[in-house]
Amino acid sequence: MLHIINHFPLQHSFLEKTHTGDTIMLKDDAVYALTKENLRESFIKKSFTRFNLCVKKSDLLLRNIANHELIQGVSVIDEFDESTEY
Q1: Does domain 2-7+20-85 bear CATH number 3.40.1260.10?
Q2: pLDDT by residue for the chain (86 residues), tens digit each?
Q3: Nearest to 24 by CA among 83, 78, 75
């Protein structure tokens, strides 16, 4: 199942609606949750390993976040590829 999150900070309650293997697309300000410096909570960090995580390249560019600042395993999607993700 695809879950789209666009708010930061993330709410712990969103994990209750997810299952292992789901895809989570973080958009808008939610992309901050995937940066190495913001991902300090071990609960969220461990939970993210259960999901396919992706962000839009444009959201990263607008917030001046480089790909190397993201946690390992995040897919960066170009606008052209976005329709295939849905």
Answers
A1: yes
A2: 998 988 888 777 777 888 889 998 989 998 988 887 776 655 566 667 788 989 999 999 999 999 999 988 889 998 765 555 55
A3: 75
